[in-house]
Amino acid sequence: MTPTHFTISSAFLLGMMGLAFHRTHLLSALLCLEAMMLALFIALSLWSLQLDATGYSTAPMLMLAFSACEASAGLALLVATARTHGTDHMQALNLLQC
């Protein structure tokens, strides 16, 4: 495994571990998701550069666009949750009360 692959894999795994173990605030969960998406974007862009094919160069930009949409939807949910519940703690969210 090259150092680049190790760095990208460990960044993705750290984001996943942060999402799994530190689920107290909604903002920290969103930041972990963004770290995972950033690692995937870097891996996909390096992969398309290594293949040296122009057909694969649009995939990282498409994934970055979807990541931006995911971030904006997450922040909108964060604002809506903070307004209705008064906090962004994950324990305050209960699907049975909705």
From TrEMBL:
<dbReference type="InterPro" id="IPR039428">
    <property type="entry name" value="NUOK/Mnh_C1-like"/>
</dbReference>
<feature type="transmembrane region" description="Helical">
    <location>
        <begin position="29"/>
        <end position="49"/>
    </location>
</feature>
<keyword id="KW-0813">Transport</keyword>
<feature type="transmembrane region" description="Helical">
    <location>
        <begin position="6"/>
        <end position="22"/>
    </location>
</feature>
<protein>
    <recommendedName>
        <fullName>NADH-ubiquinone oxidoreductase chain 4L</fullName>
        <ecNumber>7.1.1.2</ecNumber>
    </recommendedName>
</protein>
<keyword id="KW-0472">Membrane</keyword>
<comment type="similarity">
    <text>Belongs to the complex I subunit 4L family.</text>
</comment>
<comment type="function">
    <text>Core subunit of the mitochondrial membrane respiratory chain NADH dehydrogenase (Complex I) which catalyzes electron transfer from NADH through the respiratory chain, using ubiquinone as an electron acceptor. Part of the enzyme membrane arm which is embedded in the lipid bilayer and involved in proton translocation.</text>
</comment>
<keyword id="KW-0999">Mitochondrion inner membrane</keyword>
<keyword id="KW-0812">Transmembrane</keyword>
<dbReference type="GO" id="GO:0005743">
    <property type="term" value="C:mitochondrial inner membrane"/>
</dbReference>
<dbReference type="Pfam" id="PF00420">
    <property type="entry name" value="Oxidored_q2"/>
</dbReference>
<dbReference type="GO" id="GO:0016651">
    <property type="term" value="F:oxidoreductase activity, acting on NAD(P)H"/>
</dbReference>
<keyword id="KW-0830">Ubiquinone</keyword>
<dbReference type="InterPro" id="IPR001133">
    <property type="entry name" value="NADH_UbQ_OxRdtase_chain4L/K"/>
</dbReference>
<keyword id="KW-1133">Transmembrane helix</keyword>
<keyword id="KW-1278">Translocase</keyword>
<dbReference type="GO" id="GO:0030964">
    <property type="term" value="C:NADH dehydrogenase complex"/>
</dbReference>
<dbReference type="GO" id="GO:0042773">
    <property type="term" value="P:ATP synthesis coupled electron transport"/>
</dbReference>
<dbReference type="GO" id="GO:0008137">
    <property type="term" value="F:NADH dehydrogenase (ubiquinone) activity"/>
</dbReference>
<keyword id="KW-0496">Mitochondrion</keyword>
<dbReference type="GO" id="GO:0098803">
    <property type="term" value="C:respiratory chain complex"/>
</dbReference>
<keyword id="KW-0249">Electron transport</keyword>
<dbReference type="GO" id="GO:1902495">
    <property type="term" value="C:transmembrane transporter complex"/>
</dbReference>
<keyword id="KW-0520">NAD</keyword>
<keyword id="KW-0679">Respiratory chain</keyword>
<feature type="transmembrane region" description="Helical">
    <location>
        <begin position="61"/>
        <end position="80"/>
    </location>
</feature>
